[in-house]
Amino acid sequence: MTLITDGGSTKCDWVLLDSEGEIVFRTTTPGLNPAVSPRDELSHHISTNDSLRSVFQEVKKVDFYGAGCGTATPRSILTDVLEILFPQAKVTVSEDLRAAVFAVTSRPGIVCILGTGSNSCYYDGKNIYAPVPALGFILMDEASGNYFGKRLLRDYFYQRMPKDIAVLFANEYNLDADAIKVNLYKNPNPNAYLASFAEFIFKQPPEISYFQNLIKNGIFEFIDCRVIPFENAHKVPIHFIGSVAYFAEDIIKECLAERNLQLGNILQRPIDGLIEHYRKIIIA
Fold first, then answer.
1. Half-sphere exposure (CA, 13 Å, Cβ side) for 191?
2. How many domains does the chain have?
């Protein structure tokens, strides 16, 4: 049996496939980002899931695609955790960009992730090129959930948020300064914490100019930093994966058109496309 995982910082989707490529079960755990979460927390989130625990000794292959897995050290940490929990399995841990490509295209294009974090790569039909490393929510992650969460908080405390929206924002979230600092600087997963505020944007009427401008500025920043620098940016479709991309589809279309770029596919959750990719491999 093969266990495939699309792992984000907020949540992870797991699917177990049998030898015929049929789904045995689907399950979800909290996010597993080895770049920001301690080893014990990674292990706990997996081992407390009843579905996963029931097949620890049965799974023969684990392919994990996740946020924070683009560099060697966090990738090694998560590999060790998975090898201990699934002792009979061959474990492979790869960055989430690879899953995004498999899920959304088989032809050359630029593939972008806009979820809790953000990233991009160029796929030539065979190989994935990501020349700019993903350095996380403090330095990068343009147009991601944590990017927009951070900007909402800054606008609120700098009193740049329209007053009526600020009232709604304050009623929905705990904006006590001490609580925010604890969550950002002492608790685990500050990126996911920031991203939780971004949900506020997509709950509001889309015609509100404050939110339109906020999203549009973020998308343009992402395009200029993570899309335009690719040599073939104006020659291939630009695909997007992730919840932020899914809910901001209309603004993404507008921003790409202004930069004379071609929109490809937009997919909220890559796990469905990943399942089809693996089915083709299994039954081939």
1. 28
2. 1
Q: Are 65 and 115 in contact (CB under 8 A)?
A: no
| CATH code for the domain in which residue 35 is found | 3.30.420.40
Q: Is 242 helix (H, G, I), strand (E, B) or coil?
A: coil
47 within domain boundaries: yes
C-alpha 77/C-alpha 66 separation (Å) is 12
Kindly state whether residue 219 falls inside one of the protein's structural domains.
Answer: no
At 197-224, the pLDDT tens digits run 999 999 988 889 999 999 999 999 999 9
Burial degree of 272 (CB within 10 A; 0-12, 13-18, 19+): middle
Structure tokens at 247: 């809910």
- Give the global pTM: 0.84
CA distance 224 to 229: 7
Within a domain: 185: no
Rounded to an integer, what distance in angstroms lies between the CA atom of residue 54 and that of residue 48?
10
- Of the candidates 120, 124, 97, the one whose C-alpha atom is nearest the C-alpha of residue 108 is 124
- Residue 120 covered by a domain: no
